[in-house]
């Protein structure tokens, strides 16, 4: 799988910012991607060494606009732990 399709976007959240102190970074990833594919994609895109990957399947929420009700899509989140001393420059400006 193409690394750009595996990693959809980087997640910049309050919890993700706190995880960066522990050298962990969060990403929204393709729902079909497994941990090995996610690890390879992060290493290829950012040139770092990933030591561990944790994944979470996030359920979509029920949303309502007036009398119409719908749902947001389900998605997958990955938390990648990097080798000690390495960082991803993309996150440093936030």
What does this structure look like?
The mean pLDDT is 93. The chain has helices at 3-6, 14-19, 35-46, 89-92; strands at 7-10, 24-29, 50-58, 62-65, 68-71, 75-82. 28% of the residues lie in helices and 37% in strands. It has one domain (3-84): Alpha-Beta Plaits (2-Layer Sandwich), CATH 3.30.70. The chain is an alpha+beta fold and 94 residues long. It has 4 helices and 6 strands. The chain has a 4-stranded antiparallel sheet.
Task: Chart the SSEs and their pairings.
Elements: H1 3-6, E1 7-10, H2 14-19, E2 24-29, H3 35-46, E3 50-58, E4 62-65, E5 68-71, E6 75-82, H4 89-92
Antiparallel strand pairs: 1-2, 2-6, 3-6, 4-5
Q: Using only CA atoms, what is the Rg? A: 15 Å
Strand content: 35-45%
Q: Please estimate the helix content.
A: 25-40%
> Average pLDDT across residues?
93
Count of β-strands: 6
Side-by-side strand order of the widest sheet: 1-2-6-3
Taking pLDDT < 50 over at least 5 consecutive residues as the criterion, the unreliable ranges are none
Count of DSSP H/I helices = 4
Secondary-structure arrangement, i.e. CATH architecture? 2-Layer Sandwich
Oligomeric state as shown: single chain
Distance between the termini: 29 Å
> What is the CATH homology-level superfamily?
RRM (RNA recognition motif) domain
Order of helices and strands: HEHEHEEEEH
């Amino acid at each position: 799988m193409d690394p750009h399709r595996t990693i959809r976007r980087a997640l910049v959240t309050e919890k993700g910012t706190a995880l960066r102190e522990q050298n962990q970074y969060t990403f929204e990833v393709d729902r079909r991607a497994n941990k090995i594919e996610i690890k390879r994609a992060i290493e290829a895109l950012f040139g770092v060494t990933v030591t561990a990957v944790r994944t979470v399947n996030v359920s979509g929420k029920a949303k309502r606009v007036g009398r119409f009700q719908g749902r947001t899509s389900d998605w997958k989140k990955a938390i990648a732990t990097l080798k000690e001393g390495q960082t991803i420059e993309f996150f440093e400006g936030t």
